[in-house]
């Protein structure tokens, strides 16, 4: 679903008293036909109902076309922050934290959403609408934010996750995660920061590597590693990482 479909879907579904300010209200129309029904069954509608009023206000105001001239900061304020948080520490676990992730890694992922090597119903259309010249500024903005930690709920699980993360399991050919992502989970240009990330997101990504759903150029190692992990190990390592 592209921006045009989203905009016409919204217009078909909702009555906006002030068309530029859906955040201030917009009521679902009672006579909701074709375009609207398509839109309602899309992830965009769910996003709208959850928390993306600011994104949609940006969309409806037509400022996406003006993205060329917008600075990275303006894009963050008007668009990215609705899901990832203004300081890159999203509160909703569906949306990854971007704070403190290396700028080059963020740029690479944005390119992969555009090329289709990494697929997301939400990020793919967003990345495609951005001017690639903005990627660097966006990566630098989020890279410069201070990353926050999550909360460990199960200490025992986190302890077994720590063992796997720091030491791997030689017998089963599982390399130590710390060998690439660093012992603190801070990562580097090539290896993303994992420390403090939402566990739901970490689990989802590891499952996506394991099923080859996430298959970008840099994903070969992770696809191999995750095929050797059980569901419980994936959960344990995520429980550990969120607390770093
Ligand atoms: C409507 C919500 C939403 C908005 C707005 C949004 N994102 Fe995302 N973003 C997501 C979701 C969901 C994911 C996880 C995708 C997946 O499952 O792979 C994501 C993932 C990412 C990733 C990959 C992170 C990683 O650790 O690999 C980057 C980079 C990113 N977004 C950048 C941005 C930027 C830059 C903007 C603003 C221009 C933005 N996003 C706007 C929802 C959003
Ligand atoms: C040989 C190096 C290497 C090892 C070992 C490794 N990783 Fe990775 N990992 C990577 C690379 C490279 C990426 C980025 C993949 C991409 O660009 O799609 C990555 C990505 C990830 C991501 C996705 C992060 C995000 O923000 O979307 C998670 C989660 C992850 N690794 C967890 C682990 C865990 C857990 C282990 C140990 C069991 C591990 N990795 C071992 C290289 C490695």
Written account of the structure:
- The chain folds into three domains: 3-41, no CATH class; 61-143, Cytochrome Bc1 Complex, Chain D, domain 2 (Orthogonal Bundle); 155-242, Cytochrome Bc1 Complex, Chain D, domain 2 (Orthogonal Bundle).
- Helices cover 51% and strands 2% of the residues.
- The protein is built from 13 helices and two strands.
- α6 (103-115) crosses α7 (123-129).
- It is globular.
- The model is unreliable at 17-25 and 63-69 (pLDDT under 50).
- One heme C (HEC) binds at residues 96, 164, 174-175, 177, 179-181, 190-192, 194, 202, 205-206, 214, 216, 218-219, 221-222, 225, 237.
- Residues 96, 164, 174-175, 177, 179-181, 190-192, 194, 202, 205-206, 214, 216, 218-219, 221-222, 225, 237 line the site of one heme C.
Secondary structure: elements and pairs:
Layout: H1 3-13, E1 14-15, E2 27-28, H2 34-40, H3 43-50, H4 53-60, H5 72-84, H6 103-115, H7 123-129, H8 135-143, H9 155-167, H10 178-181, H11 199-210, H12 220-227, H13 231-242
Helix pairs in contact: 1-2, 4-5, 5-8, 6-7, 6-8, 9-13, 11-12, 11-13
One heme C binds at residues 47, 52, 55, 75, 79-80, 82-84, 94-96, 98, 101, 106, 109-110, 120, 122-123, 126, 130, 138, 192.
Briefly say what this structure is.
51% of the residues lie in helices and 2% in strands. It is an all-alpha fold and 244 residues long. Mean pLDDT is 83; it is low at 17-25 and 63-69.
| Shape by Cα distribution | globular
Helix content: 40-55%
The number of E-state strands comes to 2
Largest sheet: 2 strands, antiparallel
End-to-end separation in angstroms reads 37 Å
Number of domains: 3
Runs in which pLDDT lies below 50 for 5 or more consecutive residues are 17-25, 63-69
Q: What is the element string, with H for helices and E for strands?
A: HEEHHHHHHHHHHHH
CATH homolog superfamily of the largest domain = Cytochrome c-like domain
Q: What top-tier CATH class of the largest domain fits best? A: Mainly Alpha
Order of strands in the sheet with most strands = 1-2
CATH architecture of the largest domain, by name, is Orthogonal Bundle
Give me the number of helical elements: 13
CATH topology of the largest domain: Cytochrome Bc1 Complex, Chain D, domain 2
Instruction: Tell me the strand percentage band.
Output: under 5%
Structural class comes to: mainly alpha
Bound molecules: heme C
The gyration radius over C-alpha positions equals 19 Å
Mean pLDDT: 83
């Amino acid at each position: 679903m592209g921006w045009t479909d989203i905009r016409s879907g919204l217009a078909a579904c909702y009555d906006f008293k002030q068309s530029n300010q859906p955040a201030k209200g917009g009521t679902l129309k009672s006579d909701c036909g074709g375009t609207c029904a398509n839109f309602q069954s899309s992830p965009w509608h769910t996003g709208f109902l959850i928390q993306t009023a600011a994104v949609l206000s940006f969309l409806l105001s037509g400022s996406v076309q003006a993205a060329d001239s917008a600075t990275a900061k303006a894009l963050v304020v008007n668009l990215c922050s609705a899901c990832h948080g203004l300081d890159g520490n999203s509160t909703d676990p569906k949306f990854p934290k971007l704070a403190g992730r290396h700028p080059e890694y963020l740029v690479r992922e944005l390119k992969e959403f555009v090329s289709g090597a990494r697929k997301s119903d939400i990020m793919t259309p967003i990345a495609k609408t951005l001017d690639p010249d903005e990627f660097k500024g966006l990566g630098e903005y989020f890279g410069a934010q201070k990353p926050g930690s999550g909360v460990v709920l199960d200490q025992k699980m986190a302890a077994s996750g720590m063992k796997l993360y720091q030491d791997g399991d030689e017998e089963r050919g599982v390399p130590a995660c710390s060998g690439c992502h660093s012992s603190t989970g801070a990562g580097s240009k090539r290896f993303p920061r994992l420390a403090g990330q939402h566990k739901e997101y970490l689990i989802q990504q590891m499952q996506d590597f394991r099923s080859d759903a996430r298959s970008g150029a840099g994903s070969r190692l992770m696809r191999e590693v995750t095929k050797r992990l059980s569901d419980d190990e994936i959960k344990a390592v995520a429980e550990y990482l969120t607390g770093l």
